[in-house]
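Collaborator request, handled under Task 6.
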Amino acid sequence: MKFQRVDNSRRADLISRQLRQSIFTGAYRPGERIPTEHELSDAFGVSRIIVREAVRDLERSGLVKVKRGVHGGTFVEEMKHDAVTTVMRDVLELGNTKPTSIIEMRLHLEPFAAGLAAERATSEDIRKMEDHLSIVPRSPGKEYIRWNLGFHRLVTHASHNPVCIILVNILLDLAEDMIREYTDGRIYHDRTSHPAILEKISEKDAEGVRKLFYDHLLVIVPLHEEWEKTGKLYTFSSNK
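Structure tokens returned to the collaborator:
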């Protein structure tokens, strides 16, 4: 991709923007290496220090990963939500965001994603969800929490809507943070809803799975409300 030289004002920012655009337009795809510092320095007509600053900006955004060594370089990353989650954690902390705000958004977005999954899920998506539900962690701690929310992530992935996938995964990251921080890890969900949700998706029942998923989340709303009152999420148990 041909880059345009930049002037001296906000040079690193302008270089970062052009590099981002080259990634967004597919000039450099996930796993591919972008030009070296020396090559970028020549292309933009700036020092390697300025280029390095621009690349650091991309790295902070999760767009690239810098690898050291003989086979090192700067490589484009796969689309991930992790970097956005990190920013969102800080924003929500600063804004003193309430737990009920998180669950309110989940109540809207996750049933929507489940409806899309019912319309778009592939046989591979269905197989992954079936495999996931077939192995239930024995302990009710962190592994169980990850497994429980992992099914939600798989449903969202089956929506095949990249924006929805990113947004829901951020909310699930925040939900996992809250559960781990404000409980002793022993939080339960009923074990019948997930198989029922999968069945609706397999049947391509978009309306049915939206309602089922909404009801599935609705039962944990009191947890978030109680935490706001007491500063603690109580253990929730249903159909263990």
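The cover message to the collaborator said: "The longest helix spans residues 99-120. Residues 233-240 have pLDDT under 50 and may be disordered. Please let us know whether this matches your experimental observations."
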